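Lab notebook page, bench 4
Experiment: in silico fold of construct C2
Operator: M.H.
Input chain length: 367 residues
Purpose: comparison with the prior construct
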Amino acid sequence: MKQKRIDTLAVLLPLGLMLLAGLFALFWPQSNFSEAERRYKADAPGTPNLSAWTTDRDTEQYISDRIPFRQALVALDAAAQVGTGRRTQLETWPVAGALIEKPVTGDPAAARRRLDQFRQLAEGAGTDWYVLVPPTHGSLLRGQMNGLMSAMYSEEDKLTAVLAEDSHCIPLSGCFAAADTEMFYRTDHHWTLDGAYLAYTRFCEAAGREAQPLESYRLESFPGFRGTTASRSGISWGETDILRCAEPADGVNYTYEGDGQVYGSLIFPEQAAGWDGYAVYMNGNHGRLVIENPKAPEGTLLVFKDSFANCLLPLLSANYRTVVAVDARYGDIRFSEAAAEAKPDQILFCYSLDSLVNDTVVARKAR
């Protein structure tokens, strides 16, 4: 009899827990957006569809997204994958106290085509042009990886070799590797202020502009930053980064497409505490933005960019009266149209290696 009660309890207890989890998911108020994972949760299942037979899957995903302590369970699973080595087959893994993303893969011919597109655009605009592509965080940490992980960067090496062949690409790998400070955040794939400033000085050398000392900018710091790499890892605990930002001390006039307001700052502290702390720069990503600095030297710089340029633009705005930046992922403007409108003195293309090689939106709008 006692064994029977134990067997019954062993069956009923899991069923009861499952029932409670389902009721919790259905009736307990929860946000539809997961800040830890940076995604929207599944919608409630609709009317059953007898032809598609998707209601069971929709219901399962809906409940899975709302079970009690879900984030802790996700984090435990991610930690188990990291501990067993399976995480290297996914998007992120830890190296030397940082979370890094998988190596960039792609066709070297695509990299050459993109540089040819940039060359044709600049020649059409009749101006000098430069390319900044930061090395990936993982490539800088290869010496601290095991042989299997390090070997995964062989395809990325072929892509960076294409950049090294073009004189318009400003080399960064060597100076980044030699730096005695962190060039990238530990929880995010973007470069730190130190990394951006080093790239800024290399650009100024190439473009014939005088780099301003970092101390001449207005500096702000925001602790508690956890970037997109940490979010994709699924691990919700661990160290955080400090966002360090710089902008011209005397103020600028900043506008961006679709907003209509004029701002006197390029740093938006209210964004630092949100789920996307990196939006502290420029108030996030925008299709087209304009920075005007009446105290900067004459000249217009046109920047074609992804998010890597967001912390670079405030530094550059100390060297140009006008900086115009275009992000192909937002808005509909083509590169040739932007160049004709801005009439730049110089053009800078600033992209991550992955965006440069694999972003089809950039490829299409750069034609």
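Observations: The chain has two domains: 2-68, 98-365. The first strand starts at residue 33 and ends at 34.
Next step: discuss at group meeting.
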